[in-house]
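subagent[fold] <- orchestrator: predict structure for attached chain, return tokens only, no commentary.
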Amino acid sequence: MVWHGQELPFDLAQVLLCPAVFYRRILILMVVPGHFNSVRHTLAPSCAGSCAGGGPNKFQIAIPELPIDRSKLPQQIFEECDLLEGDKNIRGDNSQLLQVIDQVDAIIFNSSNDINAELMQSAPKLKIAFKSGARPENIDYTYAKSHGIAVGWTPAANAQSVAEYTILLMMSALRNITQAERILAQGGWRNQCGLGHDICGLTVGLVGLGGIGCHVAAMLKGFQANVIAFDPYTPDSTFEKNGVLRVTLDDLLTQADIVSIHCLLTNETRNIFNHSVFSRMKPNAILVNSARRGMIDEAALFDALQSHQIAGAALDVYASEPPAPDHPFRSLNNIIMTPHIAARTEEASWRECTWAIQGALDYLNGRPIENAVVITPEKN
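subagent[fold] -> orchestrator:
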């Protein structure tokens, strides 16, 4: 199957098309950004108790940024591996990771690291790289595939958290929450706030009906909203199962009161929300993006919001992160901006981290893998 111009293995195609398959077995590659402190430069395992000292038969797994307290990880993980934990307060620099990479069997990473050919060339033992969360955009798939390195991710780990946050953004925009908070902070009261809108009875258009999109659709049904979606890669059975009406992108733009983005960033979807798209949206429409950056032409969105071509927007991701202090969006009063936190819950962080480490261990041990998607490498 071809997914956004890329040929995918059959099992991976199934996962992308059917959210239920998220919980099937898979291979995983995961790396976390950050620096290792001076103790960890020497590959001393940053774990206590059973992991102390590093057993000779244990796998070495680098995790530059462990998002949860290690005591919350399942104990059996430490029976099979040493976790080489980095300084999570220093992000986006591979220099410290390069100092330990030659010793590791697996890497657990997030969106801050650049898992490039140079990094993987320095990792002779590396067998799998695993991203916690959605499909990674920051890894050299070609190099990994040709050098026997599996790549994986945990797409279902944050689906519930992101879906809940998406609903929060929708409701906040409909009820003018940020404006109301600003008015109260300045000593004003409700008579200065405009009237909001119920979500009940509105039409919500989802651009993408994968795992998170299906979660959002289910939640919207509880609010008695009408849900439509555009996704040429998802089968009719998924639409039918979730009670979502399949429409074209043009029909979605002209019918939806809220347009919510839930697709991958590809060459096909990059800057898909542009002047042309905004001109086809309803003047009362709200745009919501809790998915990927790069799919919105921000200059075009600014023009659409400033001219009230559309009513508002609620964004959790941006073309450049963090957005600059003088970003034009900050001058608008019909936009909600949050700092890329849709997936940042304790529950999602636990699932992402635990599923990734366990998936890496299962792969290294040749066991069935659950709760992850994996691209199996070509063997040279």
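orchestrator: received. Logging for downstream: The first strand starts at residue 2 and ends at 3. Confidence is low (pLDDT under 50) at residues 1-54.
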